[in-house]
Design a protein that fits this description.
The protein is an alpha+beta fold. The chain has 2 domains: 4-11 and 104-161, Alpha-Beta Plaits (2-Layer Sandwich); 14-100, 2-Layer Sandwich (Alpha-Beta Plaits). The protein has 4 helices and 9 strands; from the N terminus they run βαββαβββαββαβ. The chain has helices at residues 14-30, 57-73, 106-118, 139-150, and strands spanning 4-9, 40-44, 49-54, 81-83, 87-88, 94-100, 124-128, 131-136, 159-161. Strands 2, 3, 4, 5 and 6 form a 5-stranded antiparallel beta sheet that branches. Strands 7-8-1-9 form a 4-stranded antiparallel beta sheet, covered by helices on one side. Helix 1 crosses helix 2.
């Protein structure tokens, strides 16, 4: 009998984030409350980060709300957005970095693997870098595993790929 498997991943499409940043920057240039504040949102794809900058902390919070709204409208989960502490910059400005979580962190992968084992399903889960592979002899067991994982919150958005 053949083995069946699927991968559990947590990926964010940076092209969609880039579109959201463009739309948010257009909104910022047109809004009256941002006139003359040198507010900006930038996407650093290499480091998987959003950089928010404005004249004060309140405006940075507003920028974060704007970009998160744009991202959510495009179907990207906000669980994978990790806002850092707002920092004071030179000239009385404020800035914030929002890290974009790509992949499943090792501690979350162990937590997911433990949840699968605790459910006593006839599947085996193995951690492979920033993703998990779940395999079984039964497709039904894999479906049950997916249902179990959809019902729990692990702090990252999970996607199921490579189902075979």
């Amino acid at each position: 009998m053949a083995d069946y498997s699927f991968d559990i991943v947590s990926k964010v499409d940076l092209n969609v984030i880039s579109e959201a940043v463009s739309a948010a920057n257009k909104e910022i240039t047109n809004r009256y409350d941002f006139k003359g504040t040198n507010s900006s949102i930038e996407l650093n794809q290499k480091d998987n980060e959003l950089k928010l900058a404005s004249s004060d902390e309140y405006k940075v919070n507003t920028l974060r709300d704007i970009i998160f709204t744009r991202i959510a409208k495009r179907g990207i989960p906000l669980k994978n957005m990790l806002p850092q502490k707002i920092e004071a910059a030179l000239g009385g400005n404020a800035k914030q970095t929002v890290k974009i979580q790509q992949g499943i962190p090792a501690d979350k992968a162990k937590e997911i693997s433990k949840a699968i084992k605790d459910a006593k399903l006839k599947v085996s889960a193995s951690i492979q870098g920033d993703q998990l592979r779940v395999s079984s002899k039964s497709k039904d067991e894999l479906q049950n595993t997916m249902a179990l994982l959809r019902g729990k919150d692990f702090g990252v958005e999970l996607q199921f790929t490579n189902y075979r």
